[in-house]
Amino acid sequence: MLSKCFRFVRLFTASCLVLTAGISSAADEGKVPDTIAQRVAACVVCHGKEGRAGSDGYYPRIAGKPAGYLYNQLINFRDGKRTYPVMTAMLENMSDAYLREIAQYFSDQHPPYPEPQPTQSNPAELERGRLLVHHGDKEKGIPACVACHSAKMTGTAPAIPGLIGLPRDYLLGQIGAWKIGTRHAAKPDCMADIVMKMSAADITAAASWLSEQRVPADATPAPAITTKLPLECGNLAP
User: How far is CA 93 from CA 19, 143, 168, in A?
Assistant: First the structure.
């Protein structure tokens, strides 16, 4: 617990220093640039340059994700529906309009992405992950991930996130949070329903396979789905 506290202090301090440094540098020149890129400088401390994902294997890619999804998550962190002290501390005084602006900024970013880091998973585990992503498991009632998150797994407008380009540890952490009931979405919470049908081996396999896939050159979200989804989901509105 103490190590987590120290980590929080370091991250929050680093984020504040980035904001302060940017303002101080501009002040030395007699002018503070009022650009959205300058105002979200603290975000890239954890999420990487242009939001392409952190280098430590935990912080997710936020660049190029659907703006509606990013906005919903910012609201959830601000209002305590998702719990992470660094995010809550940074967002607690921000308005809905400002959070929409931040979400749109990162949604519009499409930088080149680094090569995925190998997970050292065995071939059988990776094949199980591929099958779950592309076909699901009918016997367990698990729908294919591509049914909602798009064929390229880059997400679907307006509010279904892309799962490609996310670190394995982050995927395991978030799927695990749904599994133990510490992460929630608007009801009906389709992700919670799906994850509860997945075994620990299923979760590891899906996370491992996804994290080893390259982000495609065109990583923009797919158009909104007009057909019926496998499950009713309550978190699709931006």
Answer: 16, 38, 31
**Domain 123-211 CATH superfamily:** Cytochrome c-like domain (1.10.760.10)
Q: What pLDDT does 238 receive?
A: 61
For 84-88, the CB contacts below 8 A with 24+ separation are: 85/8, 85/12, 86/8, 86/11, 86/12, 86/15, 86/46
Amino acid at site 124: A
Question: What is the pLDDT confidence band of residue 29, given thresholds at 50, 70 and 90?
Answer: low
Please compute the mean of the pLDDT values over residues 2-28 and round it to a whole number: 46
Q: Which residues pair with 142 in a beta bridge?
A: 137
Q: Which CATH topology does 2-107 take?
A: Cytochrome Bc1 Complex; Chain D, domain 2 (1.10.760)
Q: Residue 164 and residue 93: Cα distance in Å, rounded? A: 31
Evaluate if pTM is beyond 0.85.
no
Average pLDDT of the segment spanning 99-105: 97
The CA radius of gyration of the chain, in Å to the nearest whole number, is: 18
Cβ–Cβ under 8 Å, residues 183 and 174 = yes
For the chain, the structural domain boundaries read 2-107, 123-211
Would you say how long the chain is, in residues? 238
**Contact, 206 vs 133, CB < 8 A?**
yes
Tell me what pLDDT residue 237 has: 64
Asked, colleague to colleague, whether 2-107 and 123-211 share their fold, the answer is yes
Q: Quote the DSSP letter at residue 142.
A: B
Give the count of beta carbons closer than 10 Å to the beta carbon of residue 232.
12
Rounded to whole angstroms, how far apart are CA atoms 137 and 197?
10
